Amino acid sequence: MQRFTKKIVDMMKSEGLFETQGGPIILSQIENEYGPMEYEIGAPGRAYTEWAAKMAVGLGTGVPWVMCKQDDAPDPIINTCNGFYCDYFSPNKAYKPKMWTEAWTGWFTEFGGAVPHRPAEDLAFSVARFIQKGGSFINYYMYHGGTNFGRTAGGPFIATSYDYDAPLDEFGLLRQPKWGHLKDLHRAIKLCEPALVSGDPTVTPLGNYEEAHVFHSKSGACAAFLANYNPRSYAKVSFRNMHYNLPPWSISILPDCKNTVYNTARLGAQSATMKMTPVSGRFGWQSYNEETASYDDSSFTAVGLLEQINTTRDVSDYLWYSTDVKIGYNEGFLKSGRYPVLTVLSAGHALHVFINGRLSGTAYGSLENPKLTFSQGVKLRAGVNTIALLSIAVGLPNVGPHFETWNAGVLGPVSLNGLNEGRRDLSWQKWSYKVGLKGEALSLHSLSGSSSVEWVEGSLMARGQPLTWYKATFNAPGGNGPLALDMGSMGKGQIWINGQNVGRHWPAYKATGGCGDCNYAGTYSEKKCLSNCGEPSQRWYHVPRSWLSPTGNLLVVFEELGGNPAGISLVEREIGSVCADIYEWQPTLMNYEMQASGKVNKPLRPKAHLWCAPGQKISSIKFASFGTPEGVCGSYREGSCHAHKSYDAFERSCIGMNSCSVTVAPEIFGGDPCPSVMKKLSVEAICS
User: Fold this and answer.
1) Mean pLDDT, the chain, as a whole number?
2) Is 33 a catalytic residue?
């Protein structure tokens, strides 16, 4: 570890990348969330922490070192916080800064799980709450979503997409309103900087759930954070002889202790819905059937069942377990037709069972319970039968103590029930093993390897055939928008483009969980605000344009279950519609900055700003309502109060434009439809 750490530090030094060399690196981290492991291990774990800290400091980076989730980090290491919320955190010494090294912007998607979403309002609330309680540093995890290409997923059942609901999505596009809402938050915090860096805040209760954190500087600067921690109710508070309305679960930022420029629950940024648009015609497919447990010189036999990862050494997701079973001609099931039940217990993660070369069934686990049991009747014949079990690992151990106790593969018992003898245990008879697939050994995913076998033309392909390789060629579509493969018609396997592994696909694993309405207010967890229940956990798979040539790109898909390759398409991710939700008299940063500069001397009405992507224009207004509209972007509906001219201003100002803005005021929409009610504008425009 010391050699590796020194190597990385020396590489950074050689490029002049540390801040003390004039570079951009202001912080270094050694270890990651080792604290819980140290607690489990005891004294040896503590000794390791001390050694790692001393070793890191000795490398002389010139910038501070941190340890995440390490409460006993030795000086001068700074212990830091990771989590959805870190306002409660304090470093282990008063002279160390309060730092949040992983502010979780969302959560990862797992195969079989619903897609997590963390509302922008709650993320902004958590950050503002951290700052108001003396926080000095925030790093978002993730700020840019990513892709687990190939077999690089960071743990069992973690999907190929690592989008993480991040402000910049997996494809590099802005996720609105999260990106814009955080940008506005950062601007608001920056306005408070002179007071924030001058000392600790004074905390004043404003009610049962409300309080003010006030920062002062010796030069007279003043900044205040007004918080309402109630997740259900608005609060009207009095602060410095002025009244402020605070939405539930929100914080208002006052950079001059007077004017609100930002509230975490009020979105000034636009929202956007994304769409996947097909950009190519149908692929011309050819197929090649993978042989069931085809054995060669690399195969071997052993008595009993072997653990998978120790056997494959992770050179492949796949391991074949095969054994022969002799069935006597006098077995009763041969006459009754009541086939014996094969029961296979596996440590995970997925399993396909073949009897005499034919798929008999499939079983798979989950992230919470990777172990699986296959138990069903199997069609055996008199004489010798071959039972071939294809065990699939979907990721490696990733977090927690005692990795040595984690395992995968068929560990048994394996038994047949319903024979004349009753139950026959197959666990300790001789098994044959083969690591990987024949197609992998032949490199069918590569241009040279794919030319080494005879492929069946599309018109002659068997439909729904398990263990099948498919290939097609295609030309790169025009433009520069991000691309993906729509794999919704397929089952499970892997994808390659020009020899590069796009990742594991598993659309057959439908998402489960508690999907429903999402309320930003209240403590967030990864089980809150889920979507996509009943649909594939991941349907679209990111294809970097940098992997493509203008013509003749090779697409190879290995399909375990069957699927229908005719349904695969190449799509482009783009903005489908943009939305705005603006309350009347909603505070804005622009308003404050213009007043502070003396350009205006009275509050300005807020504006709804809409803009499509470059190359797009607003083609229609799908929805507009000034009053009490309900719903969210993509599914708005009118409330009990609605201004009858809500559409007019947007149709005049926005149709045919790439961007537009409309002032949010009653006179713009034909008058005040409900004078005694707090109103907002909701609008959705289609981008084309």
Assistant:
1) 96
2) yes
